[in-house]
Amino acid sequence: MPFRTRYLTQGIAKVLIWIAALSTIAVMILILFQILGQGLPVLHLRFFLDSPKEMGREGGIFPTIIGTLALTAVAIFFATPLGVGTALFLREYTKEGQTRSIIRFGTDCLAGVPSIIFGLFGFVFFVIYLNMGWSILSGGLTLAAMILPTIISTAEEAIKAIPYSYREVSYSLGGTKWQTLTHAVLPNALPGIFTGIILSVGRSIGETAAVILTAGSSLVMPTSLFSPIRTMSVHFYILAREGISMEMAYGTGAALILLVLLINTVANGLLNRYIRRRT
Amino acid sequence: MFVKADFMKIYLFWFFSILLIFSQIMGCQKSRSGITVAGSTSVEPFAELLAEEYMRRHPQSHIYVQGGGSTAGIEAAKTRAANIGMSSRPLLHDEKNLYAVTIAKDAIAIIVHPENPLSDLSLSQIKQVFSGEIKSWKDLGGPTQPIILVSREEGSGTRESFQKFVMGKEEISLESLVQDSNGAIRQVVSNDPNAIGYISLGLVNKKVKPLKVSGVEPNMTAIENRTYTLVRPFLFVFNGEPAGEAKSFLEFVLSPTAQNLLLKEGLATVLQPSRR
Amino acid sequence: MEIREKIIEKTLLLVALSSIMILGLITFFIFKEGLPLIWKIGPGAFILGARWVPSQGSFGILPMIFSSFWVTVGSLILGIPLGLACAIFLCEWTPPSVGMVLRPAIQLLAAIPSVIYGFWGLIVLVPLVRNYLGGPGLSILSGSTILGFMILPTIISISEDSLNALPPSYKQGALALGATYWQTIWRVLIPAARSGIVTSIILGMGRAIGETMAMIMILGNAVKMPTSFLDSARTLTTNIGIEMGYASGDHRQALFATGVVLFLIIMFLNSLAIFLSRRRAR
Question: Are A243 and B183 within 8 A, CB to CB?
Answer without folding.
Answer: yes
